[in-house]
């Protein structure tokens, strides 16, 4: 794989909103150092730049001209980026969202490593959890990747709930075409209470609960001890949703391992060498321990 670089360094960036505290830069740069690579990871925050999400395509063009090897794409730019790359990996095309862009031979290729990151995290963190009936909150870029992962893991029934019922319906249609209409359904938030009453598991794939978006994505009274609860938010690791679920006795899964595993796959795509994912997990834990000690994520 080619290694486009600036002054001998592999130049990588992260595009998104409210991402100044992201742990992606230290995760990638530490692994690169241990691999003997000169690797610089820059944060490109559209909020700080005063840019709308629609500027995502312009940022990709600018990054390409400046010699970036690739970009990670995060909330709320993942679906917008889809239309601004030359090629899509099969997974990114199926999911309808891009979280990793790599330039190779002058061609931009969009990938999605979120779905595999969630898959690995779920298999490690909730082994044996029932997938008979799962409710997913959020039909955006991250939600689409998680939906793909949950169905790939074998969910018999997935219900997608989003504040925008049309967005939920569009994701349901795409999933039905790939996995079968009998395995997926969904709509607006009014479905939440009825669906959760029969569910085995719940995944929050909305930004609610993350730093800058405090709160919970549903009424906490809807949770019950038999339900497993996963949250893809990792800043903070202990969201209000997870804390309440754990107090009830639910099995829970935070977003930390997902972010590490998706980062590890993105690193492989950027650098052309396999990272040590377990080492990256240890580094992530050390970074989050420092955050907790400092009084916040």
Automatic annotation (TrEMBL):
Signal peptide: none annotated. Keywords: Amino-acid biosynthesis, Aromatic amino acid biosynthesis, NADP, Oxidoreductase. The keyword NADP applies. Its EC number is 1.1.1.25. The active site is at 78 (proton acceptor). This is Shikimate dehydrogenase (NADP(+)). NADP(+) binds at residues 138-142, 232, 255. Pathway: Metabolic intermediate biosynthesis; chorismate biosynthesis; chorismate from D-erythrose 4-phosphate and phosphoenolpyruvate: step 4/7. The gene is aroE. It catalyses: shikimate + NADP(+) = 3-dehydroshikimate + NADPH + H(+). SUPFAM superfamilies: Aminoacid dehydrogenase-like, N-terminal domain (SSF53223), NAD(P)-binding Rossmann-fold domains (SSF51735). Belongs to the shikimate dehydrogenase family. CDD domains: NAD_bind_Shikimate_DH (cd01065). Shikimate binds at residues 22-24, 74, 99, 114, 234, 262. Homodimer. GO terms for molecular function: shikimate 3-dehydrogenase (NADP+) activity. Residues 14-101 form the Shikimate dehydrogenase substrate binding N-terminal domain. Pfam families: Shikimate_dh_N. InterPro entries: Aminoacid_DH-like_N_sf, NAD(P)-bd_dom_sf, Shikimate_DH-bd_N, Shikimate_DH_fam. It is an enzyme of class 1 (oxidoreductase). Involved in the biosynthesis of the chorismate, which leads to the biosynthesis of aromatic amino acids. Catalyzes the reversible NADPH linked reduction of 3-dehydroshikimate (DHSA) to yield shikimate (SA).
């Amino acid at each position: 794989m080619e290694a486009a670089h600036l002054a001998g360094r592999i130049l990588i960036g992260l595009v998104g909103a409210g991402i100044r505290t992201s742990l992606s830069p230290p995760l990638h740069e530490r692994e690169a150092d241990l691999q003997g690579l000169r690797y610089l990871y820059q944060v490109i925050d559209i909020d700080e730049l005063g840019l709308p999400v629609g500027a995502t395509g312009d940022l990709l063009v600018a990054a390409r001209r400046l010699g970036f090897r690739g970009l990670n794409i995060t909330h709320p730019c993942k679906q917008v980026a889809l239309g601004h790359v030359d090629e899509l990996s099969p997974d990114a095309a199926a999911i309808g969202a891009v979280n990793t862009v790599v330039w190779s031979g002058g061609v931009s290729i969009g990938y999605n490593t979120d779905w595999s990151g969630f898959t690995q995290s779920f298999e490690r963190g909730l082994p044996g959890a029932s997938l008979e009936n799962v409710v997913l909150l959020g039909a955006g870029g991250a939600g689409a990747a998680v939906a793909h992962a949950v169905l790939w893991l074998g969910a018999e029934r997935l219900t997608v709930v989003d504040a925008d019922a049309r967005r939920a319906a569009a994701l349901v249609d795409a999933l039905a075409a790939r996995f079968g209409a009998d395995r997926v359904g969904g709509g607006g938030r009014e479905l939440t209470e009825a669906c959760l009453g029969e569910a085995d598991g719940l995944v929050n794939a909305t930004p609610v609960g993350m730093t800058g978006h405090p709160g919970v994505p549903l009424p906490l009274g809807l949770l019950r001890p038999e339900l497993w609860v996963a949250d893809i938010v990792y800043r903070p690791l202990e969201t209000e949703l997870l804390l309440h679920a754990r107090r009830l006795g639910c099995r829970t899964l935070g977003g930390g391992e997902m972010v590490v595993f998706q980062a590890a796959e993105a690193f492989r795509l950027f650098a052309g060498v396999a990272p040590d994912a377990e080492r990256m997990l240890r580094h992530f834990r050390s970074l989050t321990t420092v955050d907790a000690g400092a009084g916040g994520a």
